[in-house]
Amino acid sequence: MAKDPQTPLDEELARQEQDADPQPAEGELEEAVEAAEQAEAVSDGVDNPEAEVLAARVEELEQSVAEAKDQALRAAAEAQNVRRRAEQEADKARKFALEKFVKELLPVVDSLEKALEAMADEATEAHREGVSMTLKMQQDVLAKFGVEVVEPAGEPFDPQFHEAMAMVPNPELEPNTVMEVMQKGYLLNGRLVRPAMVVVSQAAG
Q1: Rounded distance, CA 100 to CA 122, Å?
Q2: CA atoms of 22 and 54, how far apart (whole Å)
Q3: Cα-flanking dihedrals φ and ψ of residue 8, to 5°?
Q4: In whole angstroms, what is the distance from residue 30 CA to residue 172 CA?
Q5: Would the pTM count as exceeding 0.85?
Q6: Burial of 186 per CB tally in 10 Å (0-12, 13-18, 19+)
Q7: Are the beta carbons of 95 and 189 closer than 8 angstroms?
Q8: How buried is residue 157: exposed, middle or buried, by Cβ count under 10 Å (0-12/13-18/19+)?
Q9: Degrees (nearest 5) of the Cα angle 170, 172, 176?
Q10: Residue 161: is it exposed, middle or buried by C-beta count within 10 angstroms (0-12/13-18/19+)?
């Protein structure tokens, strides 16, 4: 049976169908998706190790920087402590450099005080005034260099600054009160150079 002759419209439609792009089959589409996933997996496998190495390196460097900062802070703090201790030692050395000299000078002051107390009425006024002025000059010089007198008569006994030479019952005073100062004590810039030698009261009976 002969084919029906094609009209120009049929020929045009046939030509358009031939020129159109062929649609991929379902199997071809699945293969393309699988290939894309494999390519992505390969790409991830290549990139991830490098990223992990870089991240580890960054973390290591950050830790090193933190440790260096900590060491620098510790070193600065230690240097400041050393400087402070050196300043304190220097200040202490300045304050107490005269301690030995003061100890050697105190017996001279004691002798002048005793000489002034022992002067009888027959001593001339000029003599007493001379000794008194010499004693005052000595005391003024000591005070100028930070020496203080410890004369605790009537005060509570303090073993840090007083040395008890005797304990005497005395009902008129509270126990452990300084009744008499046998020898004055002295401080140099607040540090004890010589304790005061005292007589201390105790409870009667």
Answers
A1: 37
A2: 47
A3: -55, -30
A4: 118
A5: no
A6: buried
A7: yes
A8: buried
A9: 55
A10: middle
Looking up tokens 């005269």 gives 98
Specify the DSSP element, H or E, that contains 3.
none
pLDDT per residue rounded down to tens, the chain (205 residues): 445 555 656 666 666 655 554 554 455 556 655 655 555 554 554 456 788 888 888 888 888 899 999 999 999 999 999 999 998 888 888 888 889 999 999 999 999 999 888 887 677 888 888 999 999 999 999 999 999 999 999 999 999 999 999 999 988 889 999 999 999 999 999 999 999 999 999 987 6
Q: In which residue are the tokens 């220097």 written?
A: 90
User: How many angstroms separate the CA atoms of 103 and 61, rounded?
Assistant: 62
Distance CA 57, CA 112 (A): 82
Q: Are 170 and 196 in contact (CB under 8 A)?
A: no
Structure tokens at 75: 């070193």
